[in-house]
Amino acid sequence: MTEAIRIHRFGGPEQLQLATVPTGEPASGQVHIRQTHIGVNYIDIYFRTGLYPPASMPFTPGLEGAGEVVAVGDGVTGLSPGQRVAYVGGPPGAYASERIIAADRVVALPNAVSSEQAAAMMLKGLTAHMLLQRVCAVQSGDRVLIHAAAGGVGLLLCQWAHHLGATVIGTVGSPEKAELARANGCDHPILYRDEDVAERVRAITGGAGVRVAYDSVGADTLATSLGCVAKRGLLVSFGQSSGIPPAIAVGQLAAGGSLFLTRPSLFDYIGTAEELQSAARALFARVADGSIRVRIDSEWPLAEAAGAHERLASRQSSGSIILRA
């Protein structure tokens, strides 16, 4: 048996209820993990509210965590009891003290990465890798726009893009977040409540716009993002913290200068074990060499998952939020 957060009906944070559930034994190709830390992400809110429907009800939310291997099922190689590991993906189920998950979603943790860091960055860090290396191969001299630059994904994107030699422009909601973003590689923080974002981006880039705009906010920002992209540039919509992004008519892409638009999902880029392992190695290397620092906004006991969701939804957090199992 293990403690886990269960959701019996869609709704607010109050639907996150602590319960005791069976753990079971790992089947062929599975790993039993005793978790120490769990990542909290906007996708968990989407599942909680029913925007992303789970396979069945009730269910346990969460898509990333870190801990120690307890046991492995038949056919599992490269993982053994006592080994420190982290994972991302699979069906929801991370908000628990222990869980069983497919071995092809699990990676071994190097000494340079703590369990807290891993839980705080697996989903966000691999998303940053996907956005900067796979969706658009950002290079030295490129100009990029990052919305929510002081958030969990935003801080990692700013640092990694800066490491690649890009000029980083980011939107933030307060002077304090502007300073945080600047300290993490954002060359030009923009206070979106006080400034016209598109005008500032055009001014910073000499009227040209950015090669790529990364938009995790959605409803409030997508139209603005479109106005920030240079000719033949790319708008990447990968989140919707402010609501579902509005529809864009195909003709708007032509009018903006032969623009490209994509809506990537991380799990299409780490769908195989080989893809996951390769991306994780790249992420861990950036942590080990110091070019990426993982900022943890706050840590909450598993039983207080509702408070963690409230903190994330408030848009007051800076960095990642994690649960302590």
TrEMBL record:
Residues 11-323 form the Enoyl reductase (ER) domain. It catalyses: 2 a quinone + NADPH + H(+) = 2 a 1,4-benzosemiquinone + NADP(+). One of its GO terms (molecular function) is NADPH binding. It holds the Pfam family ADH_zinc_N. One of its GO terms (cellular component) is cytosol. Coiled coil: none annotated. Its EC number is 1.6.5.5. InterPro entries: ADH-like_C, ADH-like_N, ER, GroES-like_sf, NAD(P)-bd_dom_sf, QOR-like. Keywords: NADP, Oxidoreductase. Belongs to the zinc-containing alcohol dehydrogenase family. Quinone oxidoreductase subfamily. This is NADPH:quinone reductase. It comes from Spiribacter vilamensis. The lineage of its organism: Bacteria, Pseudomonadati, Pseudomonadota, Gammaproteobacteria, Chromatiales.
